[in-house]
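Class, study these two lines:
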Amino acid sequence: MTEQISAARMSQQEQHCLLKLEHQLVRLKGFISLPSFESELGEQLQQWQQQGHLQLETKSLTELPKDLVTQNGITHGCQMSDELWMASASLRRIWAHGL
């Protein structure tokens, strides 16, 4: 079972990591460029992965055009848990309203 995630209790680094992850997932349609996450953010991704909130894989890269992978630096297919998706939506709302 995965741990509960609360956007309101996230550190600034966790918030930055989550919004960056969400942005890449949306822009790259389910894929990310892992090297674009600095070491601290990479550690956060590992933590979420260990907690069961994040799944990274490389098998689906073979289904993408090679030029798309190269141009965008795509390294992994990625699945976020529902908890992370809800936290990212909550975080955007918190920031939008200055809460």
Notes: The chain has a mean pLDDT of 93. Residues 7 and 87 are 5 Å apart (CA to CA). The radius of gyration is 14 Å.
